[in-house]
Structures are given as C-alpha cells and as structure tokens.
Amino acid sequence: MKVLHIGLLALGCMVGCRLQAEEAVEVRLIAVQDTRSELAEIDQEIDKLTNQRNLYLAKATRLQNQGDRLQFENNNLIDARRAWQQAQIHREIATRIQEEIDILEKRKQKLLQESKPSSAQPS
What we know:
The protein has helices spanning 2-70, 77-120. The protein is mainly alpha-helical.
C-alpha cells in the first residue's frame, strides 16, 4: 500500500510539474504577444509623429523662403519678419515632436532588449 501511495504522489508531482511548465510557456507566449503588440503601437506612433514633424519642417521651409523673398520687396519687411517668426515656431514644434520620437525609440529599444533573453531561451 505504501508503494502505491508513493507512486501516486510521484505521478501527482509529475502532472503538477508538467502543468506548471505548460503554464509558464503560456505566460511567456502571452508576454511575447503583448510585447509585439506594444512594439506595433510604438511603430505606428513613430510613423505618425514622423509625418507630423516632416509637415512642420516643410511649412517652416516654405515660410522661411517666403520671408526671404518678401524682405527684398518694397515695404514688406514686416511681412518678412512675420514669416520668419512663423518659420521659427514651426521648427520648434518639429523639434518637440522629434523629442517625442526619440522617447518612443528608446522605449522600443528597451522592449527589444527585454524580449531578447526570453526569446533566446528554448521553449
């Protein structure tokens, strides 16, 4: 009877250990999926911000050129200065957007570094 009891305990331990291992694999898979979805969201946000930054830089260039042209026309120095000020504002906005992009890039790199060790382990 003792042998049977020990055998059942061993079998229970093996089943329990196997379930724990399966749960650990499942948790790792969920973590990988969460990381992938977060990386996809970060990539989308970076693309959106990059487009916005480029738009503001293009507007700044257009306003800078407009100011450069206006300065040589009669009595348009005030309009030229206004265009240059607007160009500067657009460049500052583009700089702030670039800072946000840099933060997202750092977050993305951190996620990639954190996910490397878990993906290197055998499943």
